[in-house]
């Protein structure tokens, strides 16, 4: 018997060692692209094609609706776009391309802006629509201000399409995408999001569960994939404007306007969470505007393509990272602040140069304004990245054209509203020393309510190999006790009953 136990123990140790070693080299996520450089190349090709088309004489449309922005040109030139709304799903670029949203499903019209009971939402409300199991293309009957009581838990295969109306979402929790896939959020303003939770919230028509306290992110993406956020305006939230963590991938954030916030965007859960090495995010045609401090984005692991964005304000840095993320910055315009100590675009967070010198951070065709400078590192233009550089990014001098319609259509930007430092977390300390400690946060071990309810139609995050090994070890110990020490085990039970 002891020989069998020894063999079993050796097998368990072998399993743990081989699984741990393979996890470093074979971490893959659903919808993770096998060749991220080809995706970056495709984005640049699409931009170049759209800009070239814009230069051609348009005999059928004297107004020349083509802007050179490949996303907008894909649907806005259709005079009947309102009747062909689902065409939008074909317009994504980058890693979020292929996000279906509610494509193929019926149109669901939000007619009620209330949010009275998150556990039992009323038909006609936004919450009722987003928790349904089937694909839905969600639109709005009129302009709406939706004040959420708690997190809006969004199920898979949903499009929230605010085109043609002015839709604002604010209040407690805001938008949560957890363990789901294929979601499109378009033309929505999200602001003043506060922490909330410790309550019952419906995640589907048949499931209501308890939610812990959220951080107050504008949009929280947790272990989700194929997500496209386009033409949104985000500001004044308690934690991040957009956070994507815990093995999320296949994300595009485009044509959006960010303002009045400290920690703008976090990509990656924790330096030790290696599953985020499969995170792939495209950040394209956005405007990072007034009142921003840092994290545009702040990255851990993964491949982040930052292309043709306009950075007009930061107080600490624009792009930061740790844990060896790949940063591919192409055709952006970086305008540095007056502060002589904040001219650098990049920041390696709490990492010695001897370590980050090998990270692949590169700048290609970026325009540096007012003393801005980008510190590249790593292989840069080595052979494996030559393909991505084979199509030179369009001049950042065209940023005004490419980002002319960022944010919610028809809504004024907040450049001149006089608001400053509202909704900041940590008073601007951020990667200089702040730590998020909320139960659903993005920096600590308590992230995301891992022991809480599982939302949507997706699956929970993978169980760590160490947890599996610990569980099997406990089983082995119990097996040994019950087979070889049966008398002692029985005696202990007997004694405890006396």
UniProtKB/TrEMBL annotation:
Record keywords: Calcium, Cell wall, Lyase, Metal-binding, Secreted, Signal
One MF term in the entry's GO annotations: pectate lyase activity
Protein name: Pectate lyase
Chief place where the protein resides: secreted
Catalytic activity: Eliminative cleavage of (1->4)-alpha-D-galacturonan to give oligosaccharides with 4-deoxy-alpha-D-galact-4-enuronosyl groups at their non-reducing ends
Localization terms from the record: Secreted, Cell wall
Signal peptide: 1-22
Compositionally biased tracts (Gly residues): 424-442
Superkingdom of origin: Eukaryota
Stored SMART domains: Amb_all (SM00656)
Family per record: Belongs to the polysaccharide lyase 1 family.
Keyword NADP in annotation: no
Pathway connected to this protein: Glycan metabolism; pectin degradation; 2-dehydro-3-deoxy-D-gluconate from pectin: step 2/5
Coiled coil (UniProt feature): none
Cofactor, how bound (note): Binds 1 Ca(2+) ion. Required for its activity.
Pfam families: Pectate_lyase_4
Domain Pectate lyase: 143-340
Listed PANTHER family: PECTATE LYASE, PECTATE LYASE 18-RELATED
Keyword Zinc-finger: no
EC primary class: lyase
Region (Disordered): 417-442
Cofactor: Ca(2+)
E.C. code: 4.2.2.2
Organism: Erythroxylum novogranatense
């Amino acid at each position: 018997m002891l020989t069998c136990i020894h063999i079993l123990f050796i097998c368990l140790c072998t399993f743990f060692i081989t699984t741990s070693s393979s996890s470093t080299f074979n971490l893959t996520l659903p919808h993770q692209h096998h060749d991220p450089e080809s995706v970056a190349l495709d984005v640049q090709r699409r931009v170049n094609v759209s800009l070239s088309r814009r230069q051609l004489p348009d005999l059928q449309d004297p107004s020349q609706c083509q802007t050179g922005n490949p996303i907008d040109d894909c649907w806005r030139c259709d005079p009947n776009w309102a009747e062909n709304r689902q065409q939008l799903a074909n317009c994504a670029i980058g890693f979020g391309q292929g996000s279906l949203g509610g494509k193929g499903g019926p149109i669901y019209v939000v007619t009620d802006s209330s949010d009275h009971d998150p556990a039992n939402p009323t038909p006609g409300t936004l919450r009722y629509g987003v928790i349904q199991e089937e694909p839905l293309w969600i639109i709005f009957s009129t302009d709406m201000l939706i004040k959420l009581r708690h997190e809006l838990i969004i199920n898979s295969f949903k499009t929230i399409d605010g085109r043609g109306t002015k839709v604002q979402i604010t209040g407690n929790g805001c938008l949560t995408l957890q363990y789901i896939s294929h979601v499109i959020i378009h033309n929505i303003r999200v602001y003043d999001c506060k922490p909330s939770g410790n309550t019952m919230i419906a995640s589907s028509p048949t499931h209501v569960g308890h939610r812990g306290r959220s951080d107050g992110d504008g949009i929280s993406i947790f272990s989700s994939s194929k997500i496209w956020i386009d033409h949104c305006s985000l500001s004044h939230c308690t934690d991040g404007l957009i956070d994507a963590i815990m093995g999320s991938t296949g994300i595009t954030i485009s044509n959006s306007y960010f303002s009045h916030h400290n920690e703008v965007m976090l990509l990656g859960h924790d330096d030790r969470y290696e599953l985020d090495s499969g995170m792939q995010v495209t950040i394209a045609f956005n405007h990072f505007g007034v009142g921003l401090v840092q994290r545009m984005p702040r990255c851990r692991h993964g491949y982040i393509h930052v292309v043709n964005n306009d950075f007009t304000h930061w107080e600490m840095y624009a792009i930061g990272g740790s844990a060896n993320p790949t940063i591919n910055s192409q055709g952006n315009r970086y305008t540095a602040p007056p502060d002589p100590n904040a001219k650098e675009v990049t920041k390696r967070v709490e990492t010695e140069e001897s370590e980050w010198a090998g990270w692949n951070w590169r700048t290609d065709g970026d325009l540096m304004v007012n003393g801005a400078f980008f510190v590249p590192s790593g292989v840069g233009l080595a052979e494996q990245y030559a393909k991505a550089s084979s199509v030179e990014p369009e001049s950042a001098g065209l940023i005004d054209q490419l980002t002319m319609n960022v944010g919610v259509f028809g809504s004024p930007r907040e450049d001149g509203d006089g608001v400053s430092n509202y909704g900041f977390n940590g008073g601007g300390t951020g990667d200089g020393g702040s730590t998020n400690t909320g139960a659903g946060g993005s920096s600590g071990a308590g992230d995301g309510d891992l022991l809480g309810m599982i939302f949507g139609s997706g699956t929970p995050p993978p169980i760590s190999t160490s947890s599996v090994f610990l569980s099997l070890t406990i089983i082995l110990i119990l097996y040994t006790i019950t087979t070889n020490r049966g008398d002692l085990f029985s005696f202990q039970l007997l004694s405890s009953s006396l």
